[in-house]
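Design job #97: recover the sequence.
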């Protein structure tokens, strides 16, 4: 392991020492003037935002490897973030600063189920905005850790198209097409993709022999997405987005697999009244139709057991009015939000189709909010916000629960937020913010006592919502245009923390464990050495632990789940436009616990935590044709994910597939 780190350190030092210093013209100003929308719900220059914000633009979306075929893989390199995925066909869950269930995924500003993150093709994404820290004052429940906003394309100025095709380890392959353009006041974009794998994508569960795993998984994933925008003039427009995704998988067993279908439609209307006032209406409809099939489990893989049919529906709506006052120095946004979601899971006997179990529940949320950004001085910006949420869980039916029809459950909460940013000049800024938020228990945490994935679940109808208080203090400094340093300190205090964890008997429990705290810092360094060479990375230190638990004092001081104390990422990048791009990345994650007591081994000496890991990745892209026939250019890409085949886990019972190799040809038409 030391050899691996020494190899990377040598490359970093070589890049720093051998390359002359170079100032990319106005780099600092360009980054700070970048407009973001997620942090304040209105378009705001990054230099005026009092929050931790990262933006993955098209260049960043192409830079690193994505072994699972979706942009979530790129979040592995973002400060303070961990990505957990069982294996390739399944969507990943994302955690910020160790918070479980505290991150909201958005598509064009509206919340979606986390599973949508794997469904939207990279080719249709314009950028991804990531806000770490308290955002409940803007986005409500379960956004106490932050939000990830997927913003889709609305058409480029010139008509262009792409065709891609590639393949690699485990028989993985993927093909895609994309086209976008604009004619007068109409813009459009379309992307379609098809891919899959037929090999050994899941590594055997070496740590826990009593948990039987299958190391093969054949799957297919395909879909299409289309977006468009029509501009009426005077900042008025209507935008449309539709995404269809289909997938299936088979876990190397005759009767263990599934088939998924997801549909998502979004319409957004912007109406400008004059230079001072405008409004936005943002509406989406999301429906999933899923099938999972099961055998008898254990070692009996050749006898069918049951099918599970899942229907999911969500209809989020956001109506927002914006006003600009005092010659544009004050921007006020007030809005109304409503979301109705429902899910039904119907378990049927494989042979007789008899109903074995039925689970059904719905949630409704309505909220009102206000967000104000005020430039008190040209270099002093005050941001304030508040949101009231009313949450209801209703229409419950849990066939195995002691009370099959639990009563409806209601909760409400006020979430305030205040932030202040001071820009000393174009090079140096400091900012601070404070926010409150809350996270509601899910219906399955409250009432679901079925066995799923081989693990028994113990519900807890007495779970209370989490209440959080979060503080951040940050600074950002540019050394000319050669280097950038960002440092953020954070502290989050949570009351009635909800913990869903595995016991030593492999049972999933849900409980409020009292008060918890998370304190840490994020350091980000970037060096722009020459026009071609750059290097940089980040380090996160986070102590996340139980602070107070009157019910069980032995838990006090225990580390929270999935919260590594140390995280480190570093890149060395070479970019020569229209020729070569290469990026070597290292990722480090510290140990992660998966149960409340921090138990590392059970009575059978099986491992119950996830080891620390050092992982090295590499991706290179070479332009092999340019201005040939009808082609603008053709690129060949090659990546190796986990070069040294490090054995590590992001979920306790699933080991990472190891070294993954992939290559791709991309054809561009302009």
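Job complete. Output follows.
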């Amino acid at each position: 392991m030391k050899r691996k780190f020494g190899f990377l350190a040598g490359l970093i030092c070589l890049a720093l020492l051998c390359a002359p210093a170079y100032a990319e013209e106005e780099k600092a100003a360009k980054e700070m003037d970048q407009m973001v929308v997620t942090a304040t719900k209105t378009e705001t220059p990054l230099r005026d935002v009092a929050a931790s914000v990262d933006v993955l633009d098209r260049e960043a979306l192409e830079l690193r490897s994505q072994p699972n075929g979706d942009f979530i893989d790129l979040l592995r390199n973002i400060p303070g973030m961990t990505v957990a995925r069982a294996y390739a066909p399944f969507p990943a869950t994302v955690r910020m600063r160790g918070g479980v269930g505290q991150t909201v995924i958005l598509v064009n500003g509206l919340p979606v189920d986390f599973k949508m993150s794997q469904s939207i093709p990279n080719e249709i994404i314009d950028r991804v905005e990531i806000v770490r820290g308290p955002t409940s004052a803007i986005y409500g429940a379960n956004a106490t850790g932050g939000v990830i906003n997927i913003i889709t394309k609305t058409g480029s100025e010139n008509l262009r198209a792409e065709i891609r095709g590639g393949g690699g380890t485990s028989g993985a392959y993927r093909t895609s097409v994309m086209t976008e353009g604009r004619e007068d006041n109409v813009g459009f974009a379309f992307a379609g993709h098809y891919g899959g794998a037929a090999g050994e994508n899941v590594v055997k569960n070496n740590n826990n022999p009593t948990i039987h795993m299958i190391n093969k998984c054949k799957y297919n994933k395909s879909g299409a997405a289309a977006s468009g925008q029509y501009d009426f003039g005077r900042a008025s427009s209507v935008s449309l987005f539709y995404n269809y995704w289909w997938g299936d998988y088979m876990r190397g067993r005759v009767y263990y697999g599934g088939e998924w279908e997801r549909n998502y439609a979004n319409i957004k209307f912007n109406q400008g009244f004059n230079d001072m006032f405008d409004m936005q209406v943002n509406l989406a409809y999301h429906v999933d139709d899923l099938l999972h099939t099961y055998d008898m489990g254990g070692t009996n893989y050749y006898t069918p057991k049951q099918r599970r049919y899942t229907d999911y529906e969500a209809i989020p709506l956001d109506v927002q009015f914006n006003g600009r006052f005092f010659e544009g120095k004050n921007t006020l946004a007030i809005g109304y939000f409503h979301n109705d979601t429902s899910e039904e899971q119907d378990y049927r006997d494989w042979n007789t189709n008899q109903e074995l179990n039925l689970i059904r529940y719905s949630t409704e949320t309505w909220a009102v909010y206000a967000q104000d950004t005020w430039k008190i001085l040209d270099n002093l910006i005050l941001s304030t916000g508040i949101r009231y949420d009313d949450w209801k869980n209703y229409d419950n039916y849990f066939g195995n629960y002691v009370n099959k029809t639990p009563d409806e459950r209601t909760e409400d909460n006020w979430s305030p937020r205040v932030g202040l940013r001071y820009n000393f000049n174009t090079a140096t800024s400091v900012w601070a913010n404070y926010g409150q938020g809350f996270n509601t228990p899910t219906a399955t945490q409250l009432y679901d006592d079925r066995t799923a994935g081989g693990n028994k679940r113990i519900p807890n109808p007495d779970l209370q919502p989490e209440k959080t208080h979060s503080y951040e203090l940050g600074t950002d400094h540019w050394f000319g245009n050669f280097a950038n340093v960002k440092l953020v300190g954070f502290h989050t205090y949570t009351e009635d923390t909800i913990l869903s964890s595995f016991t030593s008997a492999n049972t999933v429990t849900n409980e409020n464990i009292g008060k918890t705290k998370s304190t840490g810092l994020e350091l980000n360094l970037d060096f722009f050495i020459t026009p071609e060479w750059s290097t940089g990375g980040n380090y996160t230190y986070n102590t996340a632990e139980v602070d107070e638990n009157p019910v069980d004092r032995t838990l006090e001081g225990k580390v929270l789940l999935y919260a590594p104390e140390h995280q480190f990422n570093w890149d060395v990048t070479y970019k020569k436009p229209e020729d070569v791009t290469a990026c070597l990345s290292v990722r480090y994650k510290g140990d992660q616990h998966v149960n409340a007591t921090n138990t590392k081994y059970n009575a059978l000496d099986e491992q119950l935590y996830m080891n620390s890991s050092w992982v090295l990745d590499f991706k290179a892209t070479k332009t092999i044709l340019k201005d040939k026939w009808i082609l603008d250019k053709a690129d060949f890409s090659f990546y190796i994910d986990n070069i040294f085949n490090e054995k590590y886990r992001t979920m306790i019972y699933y080991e990472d597939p190891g070294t993954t190799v992939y290559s791709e040809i991309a054809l561009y038409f302009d």
